[in-house]
Amino acid sequence: MNSLLQTLKYGMLRGGMRGLAGPVLIVMILAMMVLPLPPFLLDILFTFNIAIAIMVLLVSMNTNRALDFAAFPTILLITTLLRLSLNVASTRVVLMEGHTGPDAAGKVIEAFGHFLVGGNYAVGIVVFAILVVINFVVITKGAGRIAEVGARFTLDAMPGKQMAIDADLNAGLIGEDVARKRRAEIAQEADFYGAMDGASKFVRGDAVAGIIILLINIIGGLIVGVLQHDLDISTAAKYYTLLTIGDGLVAQIPALVISTAAGLVVSRVSSDENIGQQLVGQLFKQPQVIMLTAAIIGMMGMIPGMPHFAFLSLAGVMVWLAYFLSQKSEKASVLEQAEVVMPTLEEATEASWEDVSQVDVLGLEVGYRLISLVDKTQDGDLLRRIKGIRKKFTQDIGFLPPSVHIRDNLDLRPNAYRITLKGVEVGVGEAYPNQFLAIDPGNVTGKLSGTQTTDPAFGLPAVWALLSLFPQ
Asked: CA-to-CA distance for 171 and 157, rounded, in angstroms?
């Protein structure tokens, strides 16, 4: 008993801690905008921001459906807040300690300011502007448009999908739990694309904020360096511009990675393969296309003035790749033909679910003399009557019964029939073509000549009488 209580207490404690992870993270991110952070802690947080961006990109590439990463809009918002908080925290350090040198805001900003742009603030400004343009104009705008169109088409298709689920449920093809799950997926898909449409606006706003923060840091740094710390204009411009460019790059590169992940998530088509498998399986599926591309690249490489080594080496690699893929495709086709023509003994004797005969929900088995009743070429109208009964039953009861599968059975007597429910016999009787079944309701005064029997539906005495006994 004590162990059970301890287990329940541990589970509640663990669930509570997991539930508090989100609020604690948001509070910490917002606190970074107010509380001063040392350069060492800034290095750790900037590195963490880059790692999160790479993780999000890899997860988005390894999902088979957009709903497999349904938390992406929330992650997009959190990462945007994290970048803005780091920008505010680093701006505070840059303006307060920037006069001490390029390493005033930590080693990560210094590395991005020196290593990526070579310590040249003019080059850094150009690279930063290019990254902002790529992120703001190309990737984020395109991803937002795809999410908007996806949300619109998803909402338009919801009524049809709901009707399809209801039809499958009424036909008995799926159960209530499966139907409920499919309805929830449809609603979740619409919510996802709608949330992605709104979350993309955060990334676009982040890009605009990055440009504004860049200008504020440069102008504010010059004012602080010249007026408060008595630096000359060239030294102040060098220090504060390099720090600002490093700060902007260390924030915009993760933003570019996150925007790329958003575009991958909303632009992919749901399938059983992730993005990498789709690219390799579809882009390199036809060796003829690769061979033709290699020929075009090779002809371009032979034009005078072109870099022959780059074009011709790439053409050679593509020729080898096309030959390798064609050989692989031929081997696969040969193996498939061999498996079809020469099945192994194990495949011939091993049992599988395909060997299990399918059982019909409702079945009707007839003897060979009753085949004319179900054969349209012999003017049999039994199929039409069964369809009419099913339609009438559906209208009266409000439930769609399963289809009746009719087959002949030579084990039955010639005029016998058998009704089965999931393979179990629920009714049996005999019928005689070209004869009427005359039922005695209890007030018959005369007597008909024919075969005495019992009505299978009501259990009343009846007679199979010839058609000639009844006036037309």
From this structure: 21
> Which amino acid is it at 106?
G
Residues 125, 252: Cα–Cα separation, whole Å: 12
Listed in order, the ranges of the chain carrying CATH 3.40.30.60 are 360-430
Q: What's the full length of the chain, in residues?
A: 472
pLDDT band at 375 (very low <50, low <70, confident <90, very high): confident
Token duo for residue 7: 């287990």
CA-CA distance, 71 to 68, in Å (whole number)?
Answer: 9
We find that the CATH architecture of domain 360-430 is 3-Layer(aba) Sandwich (3.40)
Rounded to two decimals, the pTM is 0.57
> What value does the CA radius of gyration of the chain take, rounded to a whole number of Å?
38
Give the DSSP per-residue string, 131-174: HHHIIIIIIIHHHHHHHHHHHHHHHHHHHHHHHHHHHHHHTTSS
Identity of residue 445:
T
In the predicted model, what is the mean pLDDT of the chain? 75
The neighbour count for residue 179, using CB atoms within 10 Å, is 17
56, 257 in Cβ contact below 8 A? Answer: yes
What are 257-260's contacts with CB under 8 Å, separation 24+?
A: 257/53, 257/54, 257/56, 257/57, 258/53, 258/56, 258/57, 258/76, 258/79, 258/80, 258/203, 259/135, 259/139, 259/140, 259/143, 259/203, 260/57, 260/139
